[in-house]
From TrEMBL:
Residues 498-614 form the PI-PLC Y-box domain. Coiled coil: none annotated. Ca(2+) 4 binds at I656, D658, N682. It is found in: Cytoplasm; Endoplasmic reticulum; Membrane; Nucleus. It catalyses: a 1,2-diacyl-sn-glycero-3-phospho-(1D-myo-inositol-4,5-bisphosphate) + H2O = 1D-myo-inositol 1,4,5-trisphosphate + a 1,2-diacyl-sn-glycerol + H(+); a 1,2-diacyl-sn-glycero-3-phospho-(1D-myo-inositol) + H2O = 1D-myo-inositol 1-phosphate + a 1,2-diacyl-sn-glycerol + H(+). This is Phosphoinositide phospholipase C. Binds 3 Ca(2+) ions per subunit. Two of the Ca(2+) ions are bound to the C2 domain. One of its GO terms (molecular function) is phosphatidylinositol-4,5-bisphosphate phospholipase C activity. InterPro entries: C2_dom, C2_domain_sf, EF-hand-dom_pair, EF_Hand_1_Ca_BS, EF_hand_dom, PH-like_dom_sf, PH_domain, PI-PLC_fam. CDD domains: C2_PLC_like, PH_PLC_delta, PI-PLCc_delta.
Length: 762
């Protein structure tokens, strides 16, 4: 069952198959030897300590996102004097799983593992659907083959069915087992197990669709496939060519290809592929106009990016910036305070969160800003530093970021509007307070070192909301309470050097929409807590939308969210707020919606707002979408047909999932809705629902559709199984598979839902 044989010729993989003793590093003091070895499947890495007896750990290469060479993590930097960079490397896992920091015995051995794992990651990424499925079957075979004899008896098969979430009566299981046991040996070997698996996963639901369109009941002719694409998948353009492409791409039988027909296997491969998925592949890459002003885009944004856990005691780490930027985040936050030895530090002030150096944050942002997206990154600085340390901050920004830092307006003179993401490619913008306006930056930059005063109303407003005097907050100093009680007297001194680093994103204190319309400049950015933004949204939604058509707005979580939970970002997007800052470290609905919205347009972190939110004269109010000029509601009908190989969530022996599917609409208040299928008892392997759910959607351009699978429990809260979130405008119609994601946002192949989608105008 191994797919490793064809890879064994590789020298690096050869030495990984032999294995090596390496040090696993968790901190400056925790450095322990572990024996690491690549398993024969060339997919699993196994390791154990000398003392642990038989106890060992494993992880799959498919869980590894990247390999970093040298001292590329905080842990390895802390022991840099002890172990040279050429022996050190870091494995970075997908989702929120912590890194694995390793030190090899020699530089050669480190290189062998670095190159080997990179090669394996590349192999995984290049796997076709068929290979992924073969790999999945192979993994199950290994789990079930308890005595490691390369064959499975009936007891092992019965145990395997439980592990796979299948509740099958013994008689039926024995019948399938006997049918698959071609050699009549009383056990299943490689090919026999694949046959058993195929009988187990027979897709009656897809077969019904296939036979409905097949002229002879056996295959789809070119004409049959065209009819299917036109009538069911609603693909009007170039159907003839598309049908040819699908046969060429997905049909496994060479004979069928020559006859220009598609067998059932080819049809199933197509429906299980990215082309057969619910997300329109044409909207995966960058397809939107990127030449409009910055304020016309939703921008993927992170709150207190340095925090890895909660807001009070959690660890601060540059790893938070790496993870956020690698997820396409384009606005990261830095809270700066005076540090020892004249070096500014970053942490959540007045709390017990750990501290990191500002210069390390800037270095990290410089290194990772443009790895997954070339569009601009905004560095949102909350500045609590003295003038002296602000000058140090400005020096670090200039020296470390160099040309990447935007130091003056693009065209050399103050324009009348914000530049576009396209014009700002490869640039890092600083968002912070500024002395005077953008005009100060025209011509020469810093003539002499000086400082100026700015009103601290802005930060005081934040402090008032975050610290709320009168509410017991265990980590606040007397000084912050004092500031909250006396906001009007507060002034902050700014260094001119730091002020000059702020070009298009000047933090300003918001008074009212009317005041902003008359007095504020296009480069001024208001910041609101979620509760303040909600208040404005309820009181004057249309004015809020208009304000956001002219300038940027940032919304961040209230200070009560000490557990780093997230608010509902959709509310803020409904008002056209661009910088909706979420705690990226916290999995859940908020981040699912963020990942869903920004999964389109090349995952570049910028999504163009609908046209009715970009017009300054727009009368759009999210509370009353039916009053909009081009109001056109749609009816969304989703038939939830079946599920495939849902992951097991309850580790209790013998427990099997009772799955239900909930479809949620996230959009303007009138569109917020959710409906559920019934639950299917004891079948997480191939449940069939055939339930239809219908939604009227008033503002389709803003709607996100979230599919959630849960394990029904009548006595307590349902357990989460998987989810997938997609913008309504990116949904393909017809028969589609939805490839589910884990709570962490990582894929869990081959878990999927099979649905039928129709969107019709009301």
């Amino acid at each position: 069952m191994t797919n490793g044989s064809n890879k064994r010729g590789d020298g690096n993989l050869q030495s990984m198959l032999v294995g090596a003793m390496m040090r696993k590093i968790k901190s400056r003091t925790w450095k322990k030897q572990r024996y690491f070895k690549l398993q024969d499947d060339c997919m699993t890495i196994w390791y154990k300590s000398k003392k642990a007896g038989n106890a060992h750990s494993t992880f799959s290469v498919s869980e590894v996102e990247a390999v970093r060479e040298g001292h590329q993590s905080e842990v390895l930097l802390s022991i840099a004097n002890e172990f040279p960079a050429n022996r050190c490397f870091t494995l970075v896992f997908r989702g929120r799983k912590g890194n694995l920091d390793l030190v090899a015995e020699s530089a050669e051995e480190a290189q062998s593992w670095i190159r080997g794992i990179r090669k394996l990651i590349e192999n995984v990424e290049n796997m076709g659907e068929r290979e992924k499925l073969d790999q999945w079957i192979s993994d199950w075979f290994k789990k079930a083959d308890k005595d490691r004899d390369g064959r499975m008896n009936f007891k092992e098969v019965r145990d395997l069915l439980k592990m796979m979430n299948v509740d099958m009566n013994e008689h039926h299981a024995l019948r399938l087992f006997t049918l698959a046991d071609k050699s009549c040996s009383g056990s299943l070997e490689d090919d026999e197990f694949v046959l058993f698996y195929k009988m187990l996963t027979q897709r009656e639901d897809v077969l019904t669709v296939f036979q409905e369109f097949s002229s002879d009941g056996q295959t789809l002719s070119h004409r049959d496939l065209e009819d299917f694409l036109r009538e069911e998948q609603l693909e009007g353009d170039n159907v003839q060519q598309h049908a040819m492409h699908l046969i060429e791409q997905y049909e496994p039988s060479e004979t069928a290809k020559m006859l220009n027909i598609m067998t059932f296997d080819g049809f199933l491969m197509y429906l299980s592929s990215t082309e057969g998925s619910i997300f329109n592949p044409q909207q995966r890459g960058i397809y939107q106009n990127m030449t409009l002003p910055l304020c016309h885009y939703f921008i993927s944004s992170s709150h207190n990016t340095y925090l890895m856990e909660d807001q009070l005691r959690g660890q601060s780490s540059v790893e938070g910036y790496i993870r956020a930027l690698n997820r396409g985040c384009r606005c990261v936050e830095v809270d700066c305070w005076d540090g020892p030895s004249g070096e500014p530090i970053v942490y959540h002030g007045h709390t017990f969160t750990s501290k990191i150096l500002f210069k390390d944050v800037v270095t990290t942002v410089g290194n990772y800003a443009f790895k997954v997206s070339e569009y601009p990154v905004i560095l949102s600085i909350e500045n609590h530093c003295s003038v002296e340390q602000q000058r140090v901050m400005a020096r670090h920004l200039s020296h470390i970021l160099g040309e990447k830092l935007l130091r003056k307006p693009l065209d050399g003179h103050a324009s009348t509007g914000l530049p576009s993401p396209e014009n700002l490619k490869g640039k890092i913008l600083v968002k912070a307070k500024k002395i005077g306006g953008l005009e100060e930056n025209i011509g020469a930059l810093v003539e002499d070192s000086m400082s100026g005063e700015v009103s601290d109303d802005d930060d005081v407003a934040e402090m008032e909301e975050e610290n709320l005097p009168g509410v017991a907050h265990p980590f606040l100093s007397v000084q912050s309470f004092f500031v909250s009680f006396h906001p009007k007297k507060s002034k902050q001194c700014l260094s001119k050097e730091l002020s000059d680093c702020v070009i298009y994103c000047k933090s300003f204190h918001f008074r009212s929409f009317k005041h902003s319309q008359m007095h504020s400049k296009f480069y001024e950015v208001a910041s609101f807590t979620e509760s303040k933004a909600r208040k404005y949204l309820k009181e004057s939604g249309a004015e809020f939308v208009q304000h956001n058509s002219r300038q940027l707005t940032r919304v961040y979580p209230t200070g009560f969210r000490t557990d780093s939970s997230n608010f509902h970002p959709q509310e803020m997007w409904n008002a056209g707020c661009q910088i909706v800052a979420l705690n990226f470290q916290t999995a859940g609905e908020g981040m699912d919606l963020n990942d869903g919205l920004f999964s389109q347009n090349g995952c570049c972190g910028y999504v163009l707002k609908p046209s009715f939110m970009r017009q300054t004269k727009s009368g759009f109010d999210p509370e009353t979408p039916q009053k909009q000029e081009d109001y056109q509601p749609v009816l969304l009908t989703i038939q939830v047909i079946s599920g495939q190989q849902l992951p097991k969530v309850n580790i209790k022996e013998g427990s099997i999932v009772d799955p239900l599917v909930r479809v949620e609409i996230h959009g303007v208040p009138m569109d917020q809705a959710k409906q559920e299928t019934r639950y299917i008892e004891n079948n997480g392997f191939n449940p069939v629902w055939q339930d239809s759910l219908r939604f009227t959607i008033h503002t389709p351009e803003l709607a996100l559709v979230r599919f959630v699978v849960e394990d029904y429990d009548k006595t307590s809260k349902n357990d989460f199984v998987g989810q997938y979130t997609v913008p309504l405008t990116c949904m393909q119609q017809g028969y589609r598979h939805i490839h589910l994601l884990s709570r962490d946002g990582t894929s869990i192949p081959p878990s999927s839902l099979f649905v039928h989608v129709r969107i019709t105008e009301v």
